Amino acid sequence: MASKSRGRIQLVAALLQNADLRGFFTGKIYQGKLKSVCVPGLNCYSCPGALGACPIGSLQNFLGSRPFRFPYYVVGLLLFFGAVLGRAICGFLCPFGFVQELLHKLPLPRKKLGRFPGDRPLRWVKYAVLALMVVVLPIVVGWTPVFCKYLCPAGTLEGGIPLVLIHGGKLRLTLGTIFYRKATILVIVLVACLFIFRPFCKYLCPLGAIYGVMNRFALYRMHVSAEKCVGCGACARACPMQVDPVKTPNGAECIRCGACVAACPKDALRLGFRGAPERAEAPDAAAQRR
């Protein structure tokens, strides 16, 4: 998964997950056999082009079902995806993450934001969203799908807005408060993308929270060579997610984009399924050994 080819992989993944182009013109959601299969990334079930189901939407539906049914299939898939790839799914296979990155590449007259006051506390919000909107409210109150209905901007972008633009008049008459509220959330997220790298992924995405927890154990991981690392900090400066791969090579915020690997002047970092030990010595200790 080389950094140079990542954009092409993201594009192909987004197109494959939304390949039912007829749905955008007919206004009908694909209901074939593939719809029972969860895709690994955040891709709205209600998008007219979507061939598969969103794992977060499916998880909510199971947890909110009456009588309650434990979502063995969805949880099993999430554990499998996370155990193999971790947040590499966010970096390579998530359509909404791809959209955020494209917007962030647009030039601005002012500097893009990296770390800013409140950045670190905000990163915990996605875990609260996962716990409250995806798990607790569906189980306790039966509200489902809360996250999809009231917060997730991906469905509005992938399904709601295209359908309104294509089918115009008829749909506009049926739009209500929920749509306009979610459209407002979408606009806020997309504007934030101009200044912050993948803000929805950093602060709000419950799927990113799940895969982030599994990053530490995933088979696809970051390997750091203590022998080669000189502690220059180039990798940390290059990371768009503000991760220091020497200190936390498999931390929850790393999306495996490969920017740090490309920036390392000593070829001390590697992404892969096997190889060198994942933890490096502290940079100053490595320097002393020389």
Question: What does the secondary structure layout of this molecule look like, with pairings?
Answer:
Elements: H1 6-17, H2 22-26, H3 55-63, H4 72-85, H5 88-92, H6 95-104, H7 119-122, H8 125-140, H9 146-150, H10 153-167, H11 169-172, H12 177-195, H13 199-203, H14 206-214, E1 221-224, H15 234-238, H16 259-263, E2 269-272, H17 283-289
Helix pairs in contact: 3-8, 4-14, 6-12, 8-14, 10-12
The biggest sheet amounts to: 2 strands, antiparallel
Q: What's the SSE pattern?
A: HHHHHHHHHHHHHHEHHEH
**Helix-strand makeup class:** mainly alpha
Uncertain runs are 276-290
Percentage of residues in strands: under 5%
Number of helices: 17
Radius of gyration from the CA trace? 20 Å
| Helical content (DSSP H or I, runs of 4+) | 40-55%
Average pLDDT confidence is 87
Distance N to C terminus: 32 Å
Query: Could you say which overall geometry the principal axes of the C-alpha atoms support?
Result: globular
The spatial strand order of the largest sheet comes to 1-2
Number of E strands: 2
